[in-house]
Amino acid sequence: MLFNLLSEASNTPSGGGNYTMWILLGVLVVILGVMMFTSSRANKKRQKEAEEKLNGLRVGDRVKTIGGICGIVVEIDNDENTFVLETGMENSGNFIKFDKVAVYQSSHPEDVSVAEPAEPAEVSAEENADAAEAAEDVSETAESAETADNAEETQE
């Protein structure tokens, strides 16, 4: 579409066609410039968040690597940009050394909270009686429907 507009603008016999072509090219350049600017800002923001996540890694954090290995960080070497991960059970003590960029997910121990089971709600005797009556009504309706079905079958 834009190519057709540009070719029509350049083929017009009057001298004003060149201005139309330059305006369309200018608009196209501005649109591309805005798109590049916004995408570079988003990439910088994403990269900054990733760096903060890696630099915020602490001993005792639970980590999942990009390879799917889960464990607890036991040592961090900022000079080599690596960390040591303890995997397996407490008794086995398997240790693996990773680059920090291998972190997929991480969580601090104090961020993880164990959900306590909810206490059963207090239900009054009146609510229990209402629920029992509703259950009886449903069972009576089901019985009457079965009786009607049986009567239809015998008539056939």
Structure, described:
It is a single chain. The chain has 3 helices and 5 strands. It has 156 residues and is an alpha+beta fold. Among the domains are: 52 residues, no CATH class; 50 residues, SH3 type barrels (Roll), CATH 2.30.30. Strands 4-3-2-1-5 form a 5-stranded antiparallel sheet, with no helix packed on it. A hairpin with a 6-residue loop joins strand 3 and strand 4. Helix 1 packs antiparallel against helix 2.
Number of strands: 5
Large-scale geometry: flat
The whole-number mean of residue pLDDT values reads 76
Terminal CA distance reads 72 Å
Q: Order of strands across the biggest sheet?
A: 4-3-2-1-5
Q: Biggest β-sheet, characterized?
A: 5 strands, antiparallel
Order of SSEs, N→C?
A: HHEEEEEH
Topology at a glance:
Blueprint: H1 2-11, H2 17-55, E1 62-65, E2 70-77, E3 82-87, E4 94-99, E5 103-107, H3 125-155
Antiparallel strand pairs: 1-2, 1-5, 2-3, 3-4
Helix pairs in contact: 1-2
Which terms would index this structure?
single chain; 156 residues; alpha+beta; SH3 type barrels; five-stranded antiparallel beta sheet; 3 helices; 51% helix; 19% strand; flat
Q: How do you describe this structure in short?
A:
The chain is an alpha+beta fold and 156 residues long.
